[in-house]
Design brief:
This protein is an all-alpha fold. The chain has helices at residues 2-26, 34-58, 63-76, 97-131, 134-156, 164-167, 169-179, 183-216. This is DUF1361 domain-containing protein.
């Protein structure tokens, strides 16, 4: 029930973001559904992590199955923080109403996508600690953060997407080789990973405090 409640809450937030977009359409402005598509993609790692968490609660000794789910989860995780980079599309005109609406709308989309990513990170991290060990789970967590940042770089700068792993694996490999020593890619990956890590620590701290407080009472 805990996981289903979280999914329901995130669904409500996603619908609220789409509502902001509908208001944008009512202004007779050009329609761009890429934000809605990116928001949908941010749900994929969330659903995978929810499934992994539910599965490992019932069957703890499934390291291979969890590894396969984790690889798929990691392939789609960059779609969650990716929408932060959409803020770069903002055009500033202080006398234009749409400037402020677009600012709030893009921030809302980015915020909900980040929530999806952070909750999925919490569920998959909990699954790792449950099936493998706490130490190994924490190591996987630390490795996944800059990896997600690198995925965002590949999507925004190199214009790749998660589906290219299946359709164009050769292009993915070439971009990986070209970017592995690129200074911008390294800084980008580190800073996105750092942002995710800080936000995740806040989420983890709040959840752990609530659990401990509930046990005391």
């Amino acid at each position: 029930m805990e996981g289903l409640f979280s999914l329901l809450l995130l669904l409500i937030l996603s619908l609220a973001a789409v509502f902001f977009h509908l208001i944008r359409i009512l202004f007779n402005a050009p329609v761009d559904f890429s934000m809605d598509w990116n928001l949908f993609l941010s749900w994929i790692p969330l659903i995978i992590a929810f499934f992994a968490d539910s599965l490992t609660k019932r069957f703890e000794n499934i390291p291979v199955a969890l590894a396969l789910l984790s690889i798929t989860w990691l392939a789609f995780l960059p779609n969650a923080p990716y929408m932060i980079t959409d803020l770069a599309h903002l055009t500033v005109d202080y006398q234009r109403d749409l400037t402020w609406h677009d600012t709030i709308m893009l921030f809302f989309y980015a915020e909900v996508s980040l929530f999806n990513g952070l909750v999925s990170l919490y569920w998959i991290h909990r699954s790792w600690r449950r099936v493998y060990s706490k130490r190994f789970g924490n190591i996987l967590l630390l490795l996944s953060l800059p990896t997600a940042g690198f995925g965002v770089y590949l999507g925004r700068v190199r214009r790749m997407n998660s589906w290219d792993i299946i359709h164009e694996p050769g292009v993915i490999i070439n971009n990986l080789l070209d970017s592995i020593l690129d200074r911008t890619a390294l800084v980008f990956s580190f800073e996105i990973g750092l942002l995710l890590g800080i936000l995740y620590l806040v989420l983890w701290g709040i959840i752990r405090f609530r659990i401990r407080y509930s046990k005391k009472n």
